[in-house]
Amino acid sequence: MKNTVPQIRPAKPTADPTVLVVESAVELLESIRAALEQAIKCRLLVAPTAAQASRFIATEAVDLMICNVALSDGQGVDLIQTLHQHHPNASAMVLSGEPCVDDAINSLRCGAVDFVSLPVDMGELVDRVGQALARQLRVIRKESQIARLRGAVKKLSDSRRTVSKKVDLLCNDLITAYAELARQLEEVRNTESFRAAISPATNLEQFLRHTMDWLLRQMGYANAAIWLASENGPRQAAYMKCTIAGTPPLVEAMRTGIIPRIMHDGLIHADNSELRKRLSPAELPLLGGQTLLGVHCKYLGKSLATVVLFRESAKAFSAEHAATLRVIAPIFATALAGIIDRDARQEHPEKTPVEDEDREKTKKTDEADWWKRGEAAPF
Question: For 325-336, how does the pLDDT look when each residue is reduced to its tens digit (9 = 90+)?
């Protein structure tokens, strides 16, 4: 008998979304069901096995699937692929009791929009499910808009009067769509450029150098610092001087002042007047005449680093600079987590004389290390 994929009727933006929860642990499954039924208006389906989940996927219009990486009769990643075969626009969230970098990467590659470490507070899970459904609703509305545009184009040929009215509407939509497409293309360009810049890095030092070199090439000459999370709070791991030296008083003032603020807010983009309101008394005489851009980088909900750039207020950072920093923050955090995980596995790395010689040669010739060697900016 020939296998065919059922044709599912597209969801309407006003319809309650259908959420499928797949979890072999009965107590956790019931906890998730109770939390979602109480907090989110949706049509809820639950399945303790991959087989039952597959039957739901084949017969129901699923908008969001929440599944565990490891099920009693299969893998969550396989279910994501099945979900997208039947419902290309559906979203998936992955749960894992033993989260690791490989599981997260595999899930994201298969199309998951979120990776949740267990145990998780049910309130936090409900919030993340709500965010995933909101993204899904935007996708549905965008599809509806595209369908509406196609209908408008078809009607343009009916009459001269209809053409006159519909062209105006179409032009407005096309302008909006073009602006959105341009923004998305710019994000893709920046993310791919950043990935290419950090890919040659083989250790933490090289990774930080390449990151700072890329940031300065994108945003212009500035004072730049990267702070890493530690048990004793944020510690400065890299600093590039443009106009202000990274003196101990400045480092300590930022450590207890603006860095915690960035970690709390997620991103700070402040001109001189706004920055002065945010600075601590210790920071004000040191950074009072600056404009600042900073982002907090997290991976799997864990704080890993904070990236900060600041320079004279006359050369303020633009909204495009802030968008660039925001879009590369998760890529930076993911790559940093991979390096940290790799270093943790290599507790006693052995280096041969040839490797030492290659490392010294790389330090001398690495283009990203120009600022550390005291050379003029190559851009």
Answer: 999 899 999 989
